[in-house]
C-alpha cells in the first residue's frame, strides 16, 4: 500500500461532504487498503486520522529508526493450546434489536449528566499549563494535532481545563502513516494518569504532579489501555503480534499474546477479539486464554481497538456482515453488546452507514446497562457527539458535542 493510495481515497471522502453514502464508500475502500497492510490492526489508522467525514489526511516523513534503549525484563509467553468455554453456559434471552442510528435523531434526544460539559472545544488557547496547576483527578482528555506534534487538553474534576505541557510527537510509522496519540484507554480509570504511545516508547504523565516518565518499547507503538488497578498499561506495536505489558512502577516490559483487540475487565481479566474474529478471555495474570466456543468472524472496532468490558458483558462496534455465535449466524452492523462468557448477542444499536460504523467508539460502561459512545459527524461543519445508550431500554441521551477529536474518559469517574 502506498501513501498516495490512502491519501487519495480519503481526499475522495473529504471532497463529497454532501453525499454521505459516497463518503462512506470511500472510507470503506480506504479502510480495506489499510486492512491489507495491517493484518492485526485492521483499519485503525483510517479511523484515527480521518476522525470525521470531511477531514483530510496529513502525512509525515519516515520514522527515525535510531537504535532504541533496551526495555526491561521480558517474560516468556505460554503458547500452549487454549481451552474452550463450557458447553453448559446458560443461554440468554433473544437479542434486542433497536432502530438504526442517524445523526438526525440528535435534536430529539434529552441531555444526560455524567460529569462532562455539554460543549467540549478541545482548544488549548488561553488554558493554564498542567505544570502550573496539576489536577486532583481528570475526567476527560482531548487531543488536537498540528504538524508533527500533538497537544492534549485535560478536564479536571474541578470543572477547569488545562493543557498538558509535555512534548509529545504524533506517532508516525516507517511508511509515514500517522496514528492518534490519544486512545480511548489513555486516561487511567481513576483519572490520575495519562498514557500516550510514542515511537519507540510510551509516555506516562502523572496528572496530580505534572511529572512524566518515558518507558522504552521499541517500534511504532499504537493503542494503549490501563489495567483496572492502574499498575500496568497494555501497548500494541505494529511490528509485533500481541502486546507489551508495561509495569509503570518497575518499568519492566512483558510481551503478552493479546494485542490491539484486547481490553481489561474490572476483575483484571483481559478480553480479546482476535484478528480472526474469535472471542477470548485471559484470567488475571494468565497467558492461557479461554476461547469462547462458537464465536467467529467478529470484526470492526471490536477487533481493532478492543471492546469495553463490564463484569458480564462486552460492547463494541462491528462491521456490517455476519458473525457466528452459539445461537447461529448473526447479521450485525453497529454497536453490539455480547455476553462475555458465552458470546451470545444481547443487544444491537444498528448504525445508518459506514461512516458511523468505522468511526464510532464505545468509550466506557456508565453502569451495568449503559455505555458512553463517541459518534462522528457526517460533515465538517458539524460536531461529533458523546451519547449514552441504555441497551436494556434502548434510551439514547446526549452528553456533549465536540469537534471530531480523539477523546478518553476516566471510566471510574463518569457516571
Count of individual beta strands: 24
Average pLDDT, all residues? 78
> What is the tally of helical segments?
5
- Work out the count of structural domains: 2
* General form: globular
Oligomer class:
single chain
How many whole angstroms does the radius of gyration measure? Answer: 20 Å
Q: Classify the fold: give the CATH topology of the largest domain.
A: Neuraminidase
What is the spatial order of strands in the main beta sheet? 1-15-14-13-12
Tell me what portion of residues adopts beta-strand conformation.
35-45%
Pairing-aware structural class of the strands and helices? mainly beta
Name of the CATH homologous superfamily of the largest domain? TolB, C-terminal domain
Q: Could you give the distance between the termini?
A: 43 Å
User: In the CATH hierarchy, what is the class of the largest domain?
Assistant: Mainly Beta
Order of helices and strands: HHHEEEEEEEEEEEEEEEHEEEEHEEEEE
Can you describe what's shown?
The chain is mainly beta and 415 residues long. The protein has 2 domains: 3-49, no CATH class; 83-409, Neuraminidase. The protein contains 5 helices and 24 strands. The chain has helices spanning 3-14, 20-37, 44-49, 301-304, 354-359; strands at 83-84, 96-97, 138-146, 149-156, 161-163, 168-169, 193-206, 211-226, 232-237, 243-247, 253-256, 262-264, 270-273, 279-282, 290-291, 308-309, 313-325, 328-339, 345-350, 361-367, 370-375, 384-390, 396-402, 406-409. Helix 1 runs antiparallel to helix 2. The longest helix is centred in the N-terminal third of the chain and has 18 residues, at 20-37. The model is unreliable at 1-93 (pLDDT under 50).
Amino acid at each position: 500500500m502506498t501513501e498516495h493510495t490512502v491519501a487519495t481515497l480519503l481526499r475522495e471522502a473529504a471532497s463529497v461532504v454532501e453525499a454521505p453514502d459516497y463518503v462512506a464508500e470511500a472510507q470503506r475502500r480506504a479502510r480495506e487498503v489499510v486492512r491489507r497492510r495491517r493484518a492485526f490492526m485492521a483499519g485503525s489508522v483510517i479511523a484515527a486520522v480521518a476522525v470525521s467525514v470531511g477531514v483530510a489526511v496529513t502525512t509525515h516523513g519516515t520514522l527515525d529508526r535510531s537504535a532504541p534503549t533496551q526495555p526491561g525484563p521480558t517474560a516468556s509467553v505460554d503458547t500452549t493450546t487454549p481451552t474452550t468455554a463450557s458447553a453448559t453456559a446458560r443461554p440468554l434471552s433473544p437479542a434486542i434489536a433497536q432502530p438504526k442510528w442517524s445523526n438526525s435523531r440528535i435534536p430529539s434526544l434529552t441531555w444526560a449528566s455524567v460529569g462532562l460539559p455539554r460543549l467540549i472545544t478541545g482548544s488549548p488557547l488561553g488554558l493554564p499549563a498542567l505544570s502550573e496547576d496539576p489536577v486532583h483527578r481528570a475526567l476527560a482528555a482531548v487531543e488536537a494535532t498540528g504538524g508533527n506534534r500533538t497537544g492534549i487538553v485535560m478536564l479536571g474534576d474541578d470543572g477547569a481545563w488545562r493543557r498538558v505541557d509535555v512534548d509529545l510527537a504524533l506517532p508516525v510509522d516507517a511508511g509515514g502513516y500517522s496514528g492518534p496519540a490519544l486512545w480511548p484507554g489513555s486516561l487511567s480509570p481513576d483519572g490520575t494518569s495519562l498514557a500516550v504511545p510514542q515511537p519507540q516508547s510510551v509516555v506516562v504523565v502523572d496528572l496530580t504532579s505534572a511529572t512524566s516518565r518515558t518507558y522504552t518499547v521499541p517500534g511504532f507503538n499504537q493503542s494503549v489501555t490501563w489495567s483496572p488497578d492502574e499498575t500496568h498499561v497494555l501497548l500494541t506495536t505494529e511490528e509485533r503480534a500481541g502486546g507489551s505489558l508495561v509495569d509503570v512502577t518497575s518499568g519492566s516490559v512483558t510481551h503478552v499474546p493479546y494485542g490491539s483487540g484486547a481490553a481489561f475487565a474490572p476483575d483484571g481479566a483481559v478480553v480479546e477479539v482476535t484478528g480472526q474474529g474469535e472471542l477470548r478471555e485471559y484470567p488475571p495474570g494468565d497467558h492461557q486464554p479461554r476461547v469462547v466456543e462458537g464465536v467467529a468472524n467478529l470484526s470492526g472496532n471490536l477487533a481493532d481497538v478492543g471492546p469495553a468490558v463490564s463484569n458480564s458483558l462486552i460492547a463494541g462496534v462491528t462491521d456490517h456482515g455476519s458473525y457466528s455465535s452459539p445461537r447461529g449466524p448473526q447479521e450485525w452492523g453497529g454497536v453490539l453488546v455480547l455476553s462475555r462468557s458465552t458470546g451470545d448477542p444481547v443487544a444491537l444499536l444498528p448504525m445508518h452507514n459506514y461512516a458511523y460504523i468505522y468511526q464510532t467508539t464505545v468509550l466506557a460502561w456508565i453502569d451495568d446497562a449503559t455505555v458512553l459512545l463517541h459518534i462522528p459527524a457526517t460533515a465538517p461543519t458539524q460536531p461529533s457527539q458523546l451519547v449514552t445508550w441504555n441497551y436494556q431500554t434502548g434510551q439514547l441521551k446526549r452528553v456533549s458535542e465536540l469537534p471530531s477529536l480523539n477523546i478518553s474518559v476516566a471510566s471510574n469517574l463518569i457516571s
